[in-house]
Amino acid sequence: MAKFSRKGKGGMPALSTASLPDIVFMLLFFFMVSTTMREQQLKVKMKLPAATEVAKLEKKSLTSFIFIGTPVREFQTLYGTDARIQLNDSFRTPEDIRDFISAEREKLEEADRGFMTVALKIDEEARMGMVTDVKQELRKASALKISYIARKVESLALAQ
Amino acid sequence: MAGRATPEVNAGSMADIAFLLLIFFLVTTTMNSDAGLQRRLPPWVANEKSAKEQDVNQRNVLMVLVNGRDWLMVNGQRMDVTQLREKVIEFVENPQNNASLSERVVKDIPGLGNVEVSKGVISLQNDRGTSYRMYMEVQNEIVAAYNVLREKASQEKFGKKFDMLSEDEQEAIKKLYPQQISEANPRNAAGVK
Questions:
Q1: Chain A neighbors of B162, CB-CB under 8 A
Q2: What is the DSSP letter of A116?
Q3: Contact list, A36 vs chain B (CB under 8 Å)
Q4: Position B166 in a domain
Q5: Measured between alpha carbons, how far is residue A31 from residues A143, B27, B70, B157 in Å?
Q6: Dihedrals φ, ψ of A136, to 5°?
Q7: Which of B21, B31, B132 sits opposite A122 (nearest CB)?
Q8: How many A×B Cβ pairs under 8 Å?
Q9: Do A28 and B18 touch (CB under 8 A)?
Q10: pLDDT per residue as tens digits for the range A35-72
């Protein structure tokens, strides 16, 4: 029964890896489509407050971010541990918000300017005094559409 | 030359290149799905009046106060933030037409006809020392209260969930229960900067 005799030496046949690039490319395209470029480096730390009634931000390109939180460790010697405002890539004061808003508005196309949203990412330990100052500046800059960014939770009682 | 077959290109390193690209994108991008409470700020006016000073009937104002220690007071009564939702629903809906809760006016809303709409305004005031967490909890409860009312109305009027309604129907329901939240300038009891 020569049919069943093994030919040559035994051992595993080489596993074809020809389709490996295809698989990896597929993953790559998935990540390219589903993610966005990290735009700015965060210089403040923040833990977002929990909320149940949140709505998703619709258009990312029409959104400008304002961050408020304690500076990260490497900036604490310079800026202390009190809550600070970060606009773009630097620490700013509430008075700078108007310039920031007009600069952001300039970047958008004429037709989209009315839909600009300002997303406020604020640490839950921040005091309302600072938040109110920011809000007043936003009103002065007539950037009236805002969104308080929050963590979505099912129930507030469970989040604490 | 013509007869010679082109040698096969070794594609073994293709996977490495692709992996490299993949890892680059994994590191530099974020999968962020930011969500938040949407609000509309009132336009800037030089000297504003709070809801109290304006000519509004006292029964139509629900005063929500939060102090610098995150204590909540609603219409002169201390309460926990978990009770706020019920209070707001009761105030806006006012099913028994209680004289101490918000009054209603008949309004013509396209798609719904003549309906009674509450004139209730929620006046929110906090201290400069109030924590943002507390502020968000209060905001969240008020929005939740309106969402409960809108959900109920859409079940009553259209027999569907609010999310399932068409855009016009959603607009009509929103007009039936408009979010009337007026935020007064914060107080500064503790002298926080």
A1: none
A2: -
A3: 29-30, 32
A4: yes
A5: 33, 10, 42, 43
A6: -65, -40
A7: B132
A8: 158
A9: yes
A10: 777 667 788 888 889 888 888 887 777 888 899 999 98
| Residue A132 DSSP symbol | H
CATH architecture entry for A44-49+61-152: 2-Layer Sandwich (3.30)
| Residue of chain B with shortest Cα separation from A48 | B133
> Which of the residues B16, B67, B136 would you substitute to probe the A interface, choosing the one with the greatest number of A C-beta atoms within 10 Å?
B136
pTM greater than 0.95 (yes/no): no
Query: What is the count of structural domains for chain B?
Result: 1
* Contact check, Cβ <8 Å, B35/A132: no
Query: ipTM score of the complex?
Result: 0.76
What's the rounded Cα separation, in Å, for the pair A12 and B111?
A: 73
Q: By residue range, what is the domain housing residue B103?
A: 58-183
Instruction: Give the three-state DSSP class for A22.
Output: helix
